[in-house]
Design brief:
The chain has two domains: about 100 residues, Rossmann fold (3-Layer(aba) Sandwich); about 130 residues, NAD(P)-binding Rossmann-like Domain (Rossmann fold). The protein is built from ten helices and eleven strands. Strands 1-11-8-7-5-6 form a six-stranded parallel sheet. Strands 3-2-4 form a three-stranded parallel sheet, sandwiched between helices. It is globular and about 50 Å long. The N and C termini lie far apart (about 50 Å).
């Protein structure tokens, strides 16, 4: 079994990005600038955003954090988004999810200008991704592709089973691995809560991507020997032996599955770290205008 070390690979990519930023500075060009909107005081969201801000500092990006009260109205939030859409100093920005229940997440994502949507969630970016046109790929799927590529894992002709069909991970990674190119050219089976005989599906898989949000769901008896196992899940599990009172657990029973897997990602230290650096890669692409020219402008209507 070989560990797919997200900590090691993410640091390699950070170093590469930092070197690229240094070149931009030396040429007198603009330093990439990532902004984040955080609504409310959810602890996990605050931790995620803080990690992203810290990562920006490490690679030499500028960063801005916009904190908004949890009772902000939807139109007020859309107004903040519109300001960022039209701010030439901002190359890309994210709206940290989840949002309070009174705000329609879909409307918020639709309001983000596609050329600044470095999370890759806007329908324009999803559509371009589906058609294999250069675009911002959602950060977690992008991180999965990057770790497969960096470890030179063969994907062509392989059977990949994705467990979970979320718009953030499961659905996009199933499309990406089925596309022509590398990593890709897989035969992909997308499984979910209504899938019958899930174990039969996973036992046929050369590559398993677990992204369903259930702690230690995937067991060794569901995995064929030598399979590549990518664990996307992260759940806080109570653990009195830890100073924090909890430990982080993935969707894969690591101790059990690692005995059969050929390659496996750990939690923590796996795809979570790859997600953050993928966001940085997208922001660098935005600053260099690799996919879009900054010509779009959006205005928020009261009845949006």
């Amino acid at each position: 079994m070989q560990l797919l070390d997200g900590k090691k690979i993410s640091q390699e990519i950070r170093n590469e990005i930092a070197a690229e930023v240094k070149k931009l500075k030396n040429k007198g060009k603009k330093v990439p600038h990532l902004a984040a909107i955080l609504v409310g005081d959810d602890g996990a969201s605050q931790a995620y955003v803080s990690s992203k801000v810290k990562s920006c500092q490490e690679v030499g990006f500028r960063s801005s954090l916009i904190k908004l009260k949890k009772d902000i109205t939807q139109n007020e939030l859309l107004t903040h988004i519109n300001l960022l859409n039209n701010d030439d100093s901002i190359d890309g920005f994210i709206v940290q999810l989840p949002l309070p229940k009174h705000i329609n997440e879909q409307k918020v994502l639709l309001c983000i200008a596609p050329e600044k949507d470095v999370d890759g969630f806007h329908p324009v970016n999803i559509g371009r991704m589906t058609l294999n046109i250069p675009c911002y790929i959602p950060a977690t799927p992008k991180g999965i592709l990057e770790i497969l590529k960096r470890y030179k894992i063969e994907t062509e002709g392989k059977h990949c089973v994705v467990i979970g069909r979320s718009n953030i991970v499961g659905l996009p990674i199933s499309i990406l691995l089925a596309r022509k190119g590398y990593p890709g050219n897989c035969t992909v089976t997308l499984c979910h809560s209504k899938t019958e005989n899930l174990k039969e599906e996973t036992l046929r898989a050369d590559i398993i991507i677990a992204a369903l949000g259930k702690s230690e769901f995937l067991k060794a008896n569901m995995v064929k020997k030598g399979a590549v196992v990518i664990d996307v899940g992260i759940t806080r599990v109570e653990d009195e032996t830890k100073k924090s009172g909890y430990r982080l657990s993935g969707d894969v029973d690591f101790d059990d599955v690692s005995k059969k897997a050929g390659y496996i990602t750990p939690v923590p230290g796996g795809i979570g770290l790859m997600t953050v650096v993928s966001l940085l890669q997208n922001t660098l692409s935005a600053a260099k205008e690799e996919f879009y020219k900054k010509t779009l402008s959006f205005n928020v209507e009261e009845d949006f």
